[in-house]
Amino acid sequence: MSDSERIALDIHAHLAPVLKDRLDAIASVTWDEAAGALTIDGYTLAAKSVYRPEALVAWMDEQRIERAWISIPPPLIRRAAIAEMRADAERLLGPQFRQIVKLIEEPILQPIYDLESPHMAFGRVAILGDAAFVARPHVAAGVSKAADDAAALVQALEAEPDVPAALKRYEAARLRENTLIIERARHLGAYLQATQTQEERARAGLHSTAGAVIAETAVLDFLRT
Fold first, then answer.
1. Are 159 and 169 in contact (CB under 8 A)?
2. Structural contact between residues 143 and 107, judged by C-beta atoms closer than 8 angstroms
3. 36 with 51: CB under 8 angstroms?
4. pLDDT tens by residue, 94-121
5. Domain span at residue 85?
6. Which of 60, 89, 111 is the last residue of a domain?
7. The pTM is what?
């Protein structure tokens, strides 16, 4: 793998922070600090890199994987941020949703990203589904676009005996639609972004009203135009 092809792995997403006081309160769960092993119902999980950031970082360096610190493990979310979330829930949400928020003891923060690939075929290799395009959830198209990718790939391979040529045919059939899905999801999600360009602020005004959210979320009619 060349330097330009190195990937970044979110360290936080691959750690299970050990909070001994909490583990001690859970029946059938024990933590062995010396061995770096967690035992749950008699089954021991002894992969030290799962519990120790330094071990995970060392493994990533050995494998030439870039370090990314993107998400936040639940135990490390600032209490002030959690308190603000709960206050906003009381102020903005209906009673049923407010109750759900109250029942969440340890909130999880989930960053939302999108991914857009310029190509889906590389010689005898093809990518499809979320490997090629990851759309924000507003269009609710993840499963359908992956299924359409798979169907198009099968059709291309059946129609063209030469694999590289078949994959180029597959790419030609799916690249534009996937790109449109990503673009639409970005438009719909602009009003939720913490930072916005002037163009994104203009889009936010169009798509953030209650009527627009109800009419446009999880709808793929835009692909017919």
1. yes
2. no
3. yes
4. 999 999 999 988 888 777 778 899 999 9
5. 77-111
6. 111
7. 0.62
